[in-house]
What we know:
Blueprint: H1 3-12, H2 60-63, E1 66-71, E2 76-81, E3 84-92, E4 103-106, E5 109-116, E6 122-131, E7 136-140, H3 142-146, E8 158-160, H4 163-172, E9 178-181
Parallel strand pairs: 1-9, 7-8
Antiparallel strand pairs: 1-2, 2-3, 3-8, 4-9, 5-6, 6-7
Active site: 139, 157
Domain L,D-TPase catalytic: 66-182
Pathway: Cell wall biogenesis; peptidoglycan biosynthesis
Amino acid sequence: MTIRTALRTLAVAGLTVVIGGIGTGASRAAAPELGKHEITSAVGSQAAAPAAPAAELPAICKQKKNIVCASLTDRTLRYFENGEEKLTTPVIYGRPGYETPKGTWQITAKSPDQWWSYPYKVYMPWGMKFDPKIGFYIHYSSGFALNSDTYIGSHGCIQTRDWEATKKLYEQAPVGTTVHVY
């Protein structure tokens, strides 16, 4: 079994893995000191980010046929079909220096097994490209799933920690779906 297959299997099962004391995506500085924290379970049970009331959503989120609305403030992604909310999931955005910009785009390409190869190889499953100039994606992130409290973010992509929610979004949002980051 490849590492990618093993990580995918664990993500689907809702399990997290700590490798060498530090989960993927965290820095050694962000790791807890041994003895202060105890690992008691391998089951991922991160609390969901609080959802903003529907009244705070931009009007575009309720007007488009298919739209992904991503709130930088609430760190929440919502998918709407014909004005009806179909999916909500916590997300993380670009780290300092690589901030995810506000704006409106469209999903231009999709790949269930996307890889990012610069400056290092990163697996980005359920990748949905929404910025053709820079190459921003919406995708699942094992680093965010493993370290939701300490993970510092992406190079501008919108990353999720819920494998099944990301897969569902990938399956439901066709190429051409509007992506609105606010």
